[in-house]
Write a structure and sequence with these properties.
The chain has 348 residues and is mostly helical. It has helices at 2-27, 30-40, 47-56, 63-71, 121-156, 161-175, 178-189, 212-242, 245-252, 257-269, 271-294, 300-309, 313-341, and strands at 78-80, 86-88. It is globular. 32% of the residues are buried.
Length: 348
């Protein structure tokens, strides 16, 4: 197991390098850099002025050199003007030039400076990721147990009325996008159109204090969309397990139906849904864009939208590396969990 984890970590590091380089290349195309120069300096800049602005800040260096600077394995660009002022990635206000480090990339914990929010990218990502973390936590608490119960009940007796009813419900939830269910929830439970003002139609106040009124609708919007997929996978796995030979043997031995489901079928039926559940974490992290925008909850998804729409290159790169790491970590945890859930699986 230890060798397997080490090998997977090596593959993860290589994958992170490849994916972040692709994102770095796309975000640093010349049209994006030109837009960055004009938004930071003057929208009426000429082409020569744009080139001068980009050159004075190191944006016209070779792509691999700049990617190495961003990683922190290549000395960062540093330029001293005629008046003695320094300009570069590692320059910080109030820090003497002799104390300025030449290596200040991701490996040194420096994710850059946001051109839109005027803050360190690491501070922005940490703050917004914490807000989204609370949303993901409550969504998983609601979504996973509900989906497993629905899937198990539907798969216990395949073809019954309960199975057909719950399967229809699961398909309907999966087929309903978040922006549709969210608007419906707001119209029914938070507006004066129907009169059921049980919850708030915005989750802005939840950034300071989470309450039942301001956090229920965004949680239910995301949980409703995700639980259908998990429930359908659980139902299919449960139905397959219930027809296995060892289940028939247990029935012939006189084991009760309740005991067969809990002691024999449930553990094997949860192997496939376990992978689906683990894949919900990266989906929740990047899929909260619609929900956070709809309910004005300024979390990770909201920051990602702001970075993309405002051409905030450093923040967009910071968000991308966090998303990549979360996806790879959940896949690693999923592979390790497979071994413990199914004794027949062995890692050579």
């Amino acid at each position: 197991m230890g060798k397997f984890i080490i090998n997977r970590c090596g593959i993860m590091a290589l994958t992170i390098l490849c994916l972040t380089f692709v994102v770095f290349f796309l975000t640093n195309l010349h049209p994006n850099l030109e837009k960055l120069a004009k938004t930071q300096a003057n929208m009426r800049m000429t082409d020569d002025q744009v080139v001068t602005w980009l050159e004075s800040r190191g944006y016209l260096q070779p792509l691999f050199i700049r990617y190495g600077e961003w990683l922190g394995v290549v000395p960062s660009f540093l330029q001293t003007s005629e008046d003695g002022r320094q300009r570069g990635r590692c320059v910080r206000p109030g820090v003497p030039s002799e104390q300025t480090s030449r290596y200040c990339g991701v490996l040194q914990g420096n994710f850059g400076f946001s051109t839109v929010f005027k803050e360190e990218v690491s501070d922005i990502v940490a703050k917004r990721l914490a807000l989204t973390g609370w949303l993901m936590f409550y969504v998983m608490i609601v979504m996973v147990p509900t989906a497993l119960v629905v899937g198990v009940l539907a798969g216990m007796r395949e073809g019954s009325k309960t199975d057909r009813s719950l399967s229809t419900f699961s398909i309907a939830t999966t087929a309903t996008p978040e922006y549709v269910s969210g608007v419906i929830f707001i119209a029914i439970f938070a507006s004066s159109a129907v009169g059921l003002k049980w919850f708030k139609g915005t989750a802005t106040s939840a950034m300071d204090e989470i309450t039942f009124a301001n956090f229920t609708l965004p949680v239910m919007t995301m949980a409703l969309y995700g639980m259908g997929y998990i429930a359908r996978m659980t139902r299919a796995s449960m139905a397959e397990v219930m027809t296995a030979q060892y289940i028939r043997t247990a029935r012939l031995k006189g084991v009760s139906f309740h005991g067969i489901v809990l002691k024999h079928a449930l553990r094997n039926a949860l192997i496939a849904p376990f992978t689906v559940i683990m894949l919900q974490f990266p989906w929740l992290l990047t899929g909260v864009v619609i929900v956070e925008t709809l309910f004005n909850y300024k979390g990770f998804g909201w920051a990602l939208v702001q970075a993309a729409s405002n051409n905030d290159i450093e923040l967009l790169l910071g968000c991308s590396i966090v998303a990549v790491v979360v996806v790879l970590l959940t896949q690693l945890i999923s592979d390790i969990g497979y071994v413990y859930l199914n004794p027949r699986i062995r890692v050579n």
